[in-house]
Design a protein that fits this description.
- 83% of the residues lie in helices and 0% in strands.
- With 447 residues, the protein is an all-alpha fold.
- It has one domain.
- It is globular and about 60 Å long.
- Its main location: membrane.
- It holds the Pfam family MatE.
- InterPro entries: MATE_fam, MATE_MdtK, MdtK-like.
- Belongs to the multi antimicrobial extrusion (MATE) (TC 2.A.66.1) family.
- It comes from Faecalibacillus faecis.
Length: 447
């Protein structure tokens, strides 16, 4: 199932590799979306607001682990393209223990500062009880998130995007079944939704770990200390930490916006909770395509295939922009119908606020599509620091504008929604200018 992306048709290689990744990440989104849907329909708007705010927080926590895994995955892809078997094993061993340590620290910190979150996120008193109960359980799943994303990143780095999809499909189906059972049958409330998610996460995390150890000799290096070298840890850090910073800065900005949203009350919180799920689900395919594109570029960068890199870049831009135009049209036309999936039709105030959000964000998905390609490109070319720069510009603009515009009475919460596409556009402009100016240096194959 491993795919060598340095050979064959460029367009076909990217498509065949990216489709399982897209389907897999859409299934991963189902973990929290199913929670949101069931909670919103059966437990009411306060419970929906609590799960929605929890989703934003967990996205931030997950982004730290995901960033480390993605950065390591880019390094794995380069080693795979170079046919450097020994280097790949040593990088796998070093990255596994490094990210496992970070995961442990992250889990401990999450519990220590749990009670402070209500203040940081401006969570209303009537929502905090459900949110705290949900988070106490959901934090148990953080190690499972590490296991799945680490081994999925490795498998995708060597061209195997199908196995991560299979494990996610199984766990997503289990999550839906357990959600319905714990929330509706056993009436365990938001805690039941959290239990269902954690069980499903461990199924996919442990399952893909066992598969990877059995099927991939290189992965077994994590059980052999002779493959652990500090110089490799340094290399892993140089790739993964900057990607981690990029991912966490991006989601920290979103978390800060969540706190601002919460200050507008339960109605806006509930609208944002539902709309942001639709938003994330809509552009998730282009985000995953950006990650697949990054693996394609990294393998060819390791193999020093300059022409395939340039050809892949052109094909990726055309595919990504075409998809964004289609999905933007769908979201803008069916915004109200999409909101009623999560919200009872009688909650007209919540639905209308959510529709306003979706029509503003949805019209500019080409902006985020271009940004995901730029993130993937710079990560694959060994320049993850540039991804951090783009994220700072994108999220910095978003956060500043959100607070400034929303403080103007005539604009209010709508200012938060408009700050997002403006941030995307600024980051895109900077990323494209940098590529045009540094193209020769970027393709010098100095790794």
């Amino acid at each position: 199932m491993n795919r060598d992306l340095t050979k064959g048709s460029v367009l076909k290689s990217m498509l065949l590799f990216s489709i399982p990744m897209i389907l897999g990440d859409l299934l991963q989104q189902c973990y929290n979306i199913v929670d949101t849907l069931i909670v919103g329909q059966f437990l009411g708007k306060n419970a929906l607001a609590s799960v929605g705010s929890s989703f934003t927080l967990m996205t931030f926590i997950t982004s730290i682990i995901l960033g480390l895994c993605m950065g390591s995955g880019a390094l794995f892809s380069i080693r795979y393209g170079q046919k450097d078997e020994k280097g790949l094993r040593e990088d796998v061993c070093a990255s596994f223990f490094f990210i496992a340590l970070i995961t442990f620290i992250l889990t401990v910190i999450s519990y220590i500062f749990l009670n402070q979150l209500s203040v940081f996120l401006h969570v209303p008193h009537e929502v905090w009880g459900d949110m705290k109960g949900y988070l106490i359980i959901i934090f148990i799943g953080i190690p499972a998130i590490f296991l799945y994303n680490y081994f999925a990143s490795y498998l995708r780095a060597i061209g195997n995007s199908m196995i991560p999809l299979i494990f996610l499909a199984i766990s997503a189906i289990l999550n839906i079944i357990l959600d319905l059972f714990f929330v509706i049958v056993l009436k365990l409330g938001v805690e039941g939704a959290a239990i269902a998610t954690v069980i499903s996460q461990y199924l996919s995390g442990i399952g893909i770990s066992i598969y990877s150890l059995i099927k991939n000799i290189q992965v077994r290096a994590i059980m052999k200390l002779q493959y652990f070298h500090l110089k490799r840890v340094h290399k892993v850090i140089s790739f993964s930490v900057l990607t981690c910073i990029q991912q966490s800065v991006m989601n920290l900005g979103i978390l800060m916006v969540q706190g601002l949203v919460n200050s507008f009350g339960t109605v806006v919180m509930a609208a944002f909770a539902a709309a942001v799920k639709i938003d994330a689900f809509a552009y998730m395919p282009v985000q995953d395509f950006g990650n697949a594109f990054s693996t394609f570029i990294a393998q060819n960068y390791g193999a020093k295939e300059k022409m395939r890199i340039q050809s892949g870049l052109k094909s990726a831009v055309c595919l990504s922009m075409g998809f964004c135009i289609i999905i933007s049209t769908i979201v803008c036309i069916f915004a109200k119908d999409l909101m009623t999936i999560f919200i009872d039709a009688k909650e007209t105030e919540i639905i209308m606020e959510g529709v306003k959000y979706l029509k503003i964000e949805g019209a500019f998905y080409c902006g985020i599509g271009c940004l995901f390609l730029l993130y993937g490109l710079y990560r694959a070319l060994g320049k993850p620091g540039m991804s951090v720069v783009l994220t700072i510009f994108s999220l910095g603009t978003r956060v500043v504008l959100a607070y400034v515009l929303s403080a103007i009475p005539a604009i209010g919460v709508t200012g938060i929604w408009w700050s997002v596409p403006i941030g995307w556009a600024l980051a895109d402009l900077i990323g494209l200018i940098y590529y045009r100016c540094k193209k020769k240096e970027l393709l010098s194959f100095n790794i």
